[in-house]
Amino acid sequence: MTNSEPTSRFLRACHRLPIDTTPVWLMRQAGRYMAEYRTLRAKHSMLEMITTPELAAEITLQPIEAFDLDAAIIFADILPPLIGMGLDLEFVPGKGPVIHNPISSAEDIKRILTPPTEQILSPTLEAIKLVTQELEPRNIPLIGFAGAPFTLASYAIEGGGSKDYAKTKALMYSDPASWQLLMEKLVTVQADYLLAQAKAGAAALQVFDSWAGLALGQESYKRFVAPYNTSLFKMLRGASVPVINFSTGTTSYLEDVAACGGEVIGVDFRMPLGAAWGKIGFDRAIQGNLDPMTLLAPWSETQYHIDQVLDQAAGRPGHIFNLGHGLHKTTPVENVRRLVDYIHVQSSN
Known about the structure:
The chain is 49% helix and 10% strand. Helix 16 (273-280) runs parallel beside helix 17 and helix 17 runs parallel beside helix 18. It has a seven-stranded parallel sheet with strand order 1-4-5-6-7-8-9. Strands 2-3 form a two-stranded antiparallel sheet. The chain has one domain (9-346): Alpha-Beta Barrel (TIM Barrel). The protein has helices at residues 9-14, 35-41, 46-51, 53-66, 80-84, 106-111, 117-120, 122-135, 149-158, 166-174, 176-200, 212-215, 218-224, 226-236, 254-259, 273-280, 299-313, 333-346, and strands at 72-73, 89-92, 96-99, 142-147, 204-209, 243-247, 264-266, 285-287, 319-320. It is an alpha/beta fold.
């Protein structure tokens, strides 16, 4: 943390400092629900947009220009670090990410590379520099991000999305030594990536653990995930910026997730915000946790759910309003605008 007290709502909330109104940003706020994004996506592949700094910067700024959001998040994806580690990643239209040479053996894990971020992900760092030049005069912080080790390991082993994580769990349980090596390599790469994003200008960082809570129970999480997440968050202290620890499906062992680290704990929509905050402790900031699908409902219903989240936060310092996951591609733009404006008015002091 910097010595000087931050002035932006978002960063003040990260540090649990007093603010005039609840800050809000939305996961996947730059995405397919916006016509401006769809126009660019029609001309460029996903990887092209991620790896072209000017395009990534433009997309990052699209929702900032459209809505009164309190933070931006760099347009990127959690999976490109795997390319530098030796995996053949493709974003297939209509199917999503596909890894054509997934990890299937101990020998595969031994061959995994751990190159420095500047060598494999410099376009994202350049995009961060471009965006911060635009945002700093407006006092809007930029969030950098990366995937947590388990989530990336699962993609690398399954070769894409999964319903049961069978290959990942089979390797994890049958060859714990190889699992440890893979996770340590991922910690090395992801820590370097996140620290580099902070150095490039990101004012906060978020770690996405999208799959661990959907795949594992508490004991397996504590044995096979928590030690590596703890190592990652410990290394990120060197960034001197707030770090958000976000996971899905972990409400039954949220205390164990929070114990791994992070100044802010991001929670999904499966538990009332107040109960989740009680689990992690009111001495930690919290981010969340509107169900993104409520934005597909009539405004009166959406408003009801927003009020529920704000009521659960109870005006305590340290609440950052967000969704329990990313915006859905069919979300009406006007609902996003109304959401952001309503939160600012409804929670103002």
